[in-house]
């Protein structure tokens, strides 16, 4: 059971919720559901480092929270047949998410450069909700939440969602987020179409898989490099990186070569590719930079993850110095 009261089962290393504490609750009970215990520790990098600091989501997003507590099918039914329950649960989720983010922000010694908000709004072939239901129930609460975040601190906001969400990209743009991390493998989430809907100031995060670029460099797959290079130029401004988790040193090496490939482009190079298509000489120059990259030796012991710290509204300090072995909630 997790801190929300949801029971999970494991099958072949994969976890899925199977018991939802509010599945059969009436609307009057939803607001009294206890808030989850927030994490009592936080992993923070070297405070002296000048590297960009990113606050990962400390909790589920709005829709994910409602699905976990209510059962996804039941909640979608509520949206059409029992809007009082749907609204009550969404309000509970909004306040819980706000508290989780504010607690994390208050615990940090300085505000992060980027705050990530994640909520999977769709599956590979479509949205969980209709566009109308998203705009009626989810969008106004996202406006409230992001407004609170901006009032709290000046960090950039990155919005993540998996699934086929192309029909609401305009709405996400209207939220005024600074970065978007979307699933470009999902149905109809096409990079040129998404880029056209966004302002030139909105940054796309990992629209092109850096690990795939690194793999194409090492296999000398020129056709793939031409296509990936075109996508990079189309998506600018963007941040290059791996789409999936890094699980092996080989994955990390491919991702680093991919990033080196992207960094080899000048602004003029990208403009030429965007206007003319793949330019052989430019791609070959980037390929050479990636192939000749001096890779660091990678092992589990060599990777620094920063200090494990205890967190709470009163501040941040080494977990080893907690009085009497206690933790903060």
TrEMBL record:
Residues 92-183 form the Uroporphyrinogen decarboxylase (URO-D) domain. It holds the Pfam family URO-D. SUPFAM superfamilies: UROD/MetE-like. It comes from the Bacteria. Gene3D superfamilies: 3.20.20.210. This is Uroporphyrinogen decarboxylase (URO-D) domain-containing protein. It comes from Ruegeria spongiae.
